[in-house]
Amino acid sequence: MAFKFPPLALVWRTALFLAIGGLGGYAASLIRLPMPWMLGSLFVSAVMVLAVRPRVLEAYTFPPPLRTFFIALIGVMIGTQVTPELWDMAGDLGLSFLCLIFFVIAAHAGNYQIFRRVGGMDPATAFYSGTPGGLIESIVTGEAAGADIRILTVQQFLRIIVVITTLPLALSLWVGEPVGSAAGILSPNASEPVGPLAIGMIVMIAVAGMALGGPLRLPAARLTGPLLLAGGLTVTGVLHTHLPGWLIAAAQCVIGVSLGLRFHGVKLELLRRSLGLSLLSVSYMLVLGGAIAMLLHVVTGIPFLHLLISYAPGGVAEMSVIALSLAANPALVSLHHVIRILLTVVEMPLAARVTGITARK
Questions:
Q1: How high is the mean pLDDT of the chain?
Q2: Which of 85, 215, 251, 291 is 20 to 30 A removed from 281 (C-alpha atoms)?
Q3: How many other CB atoms sit within 10 Å of the CB of residue 316?
Q4: Is the dihedral of CA 345, 346, 347, 353 positive or negative?
Q5: Residue 113: phi, psi to the nearest 5?
Q6: DSSP characters for 61-112?
Q7: Sign of CA dihedral 181, 195, 213, 261
Q8: Is the confidence at residue 359, as pLDDT, over 60?
Q9: DSSP letter at 254?
């Protein structure tokens, strides 16, 4: 298929929104917010959509290929962090993955009660709004089961937004200083320059990894394909590079803007109601994940911070960026989130059969 350059209007609108998001990220970095380039760009984009509502947003959608490309780059960057230490943890990871099964079941069951009893949702909407992962699968299956697609979509979207917003803020309060790039923690070698040749290699591995991920039917293929390819090249000694700080900031900005613009068309009343329920739901899941992380830390010795981020129910790409910015073993974190989504996709139809919440005939 021949490559088609995107329309000029789409290019300049996207550049404009990224520039605005970048200014928000820069302002957030000046006041030392955690994860400033993601949270700052997300905030200004959401405000622009909900309050300003500029006419340039009409008939505009943030280009998925751009977000996909940066997710693939994140995958490569995570792959370059794969070290023999990850293999040394193999025995302990088995226990952690077993705990993930409990987490998915307990999180889904608790969320169902929150959305059903506190939120007053019908059973199908509460059930599919409460899944702790698998956003697309939950929306598609929930619509077939008769769930309110507006509420379901907003609730699942807010799960990711609230997690990636509250977790860095909570960690900053916990450690007493900003975490992530606001504190200068980008990666162990972030201050070292990365030459054009290394950047070109990263881009080529990202493209090749995406090409492999689809046919292999990998979960979160846009991230895991490049991750596995880069990880294999790093472990075998073929690839020697590190994550440049400006690339993490760019990835944060692209993800933040693309998330913020998704508020376009959402009614404020629905958003207010859904946000309160989301805060309650996410708080429950973070407490549940934190308790499991503390137990695993005592048993296995894996750092609590790494485990906490691994059990936080955000999106794979978003949580991977947080892990990269915190230097929190991103390969370990990404592996947990991929498995969490796989478990959710498996658990969802099984639980639907048990509860009788299945697709309508």
A1: 83
A2: 251
A3: 25
A4: positive
A5: -65, -40
A6: ---HHHHHHHHHHHHHHHHTT--HHHHHTHHHHHHHHHHHHHHHHHHHHHHH
A7: positive
A8: no
A9: H
Cβ atoms of 145 and 124 closer than 8 Å: yes
Which residues have C-beta within 8 Å of that of residue 199, sequence separation ≥ 6?
244
Region for 93 from its dihedrals, namely left if φ exceeds 0, alpha if ψ lies in -120 to 50, beta otherwise = alpha
- Give the amino acid at 181: S
**Secondary structure of residue 238 in the 3-state scheme:** coil
pLDDT (mean) for 124-135: 91
Q: Specify the amino acid at residue 102.
A: F
> What is residue 294's predicted lDDT score, i.e. its pLDDT?
96
Q: Largest alpha-carbon pair distance within the chain? A: 59
In this structure, what token pair is assigned to residue 224?
């895991």
The confidence band for 259, taking pLDDT boundaries of 50, 70 and 90, is: confident
pTM: 0.78
Residue recorded with tokens 């380039």: 37
Q: Which two tokens stand for residue 100?
A: 């993930």
Residue 170 dihedral angles phi and psi, to the nearest 5° = -65, -40
Distance, in Å, from the CA atom of 259 to the CA atom of 361, rounded to the nearest integer, reads: 34
Of 320, 357, 347, the closest CA to residue 82 belongs to 320
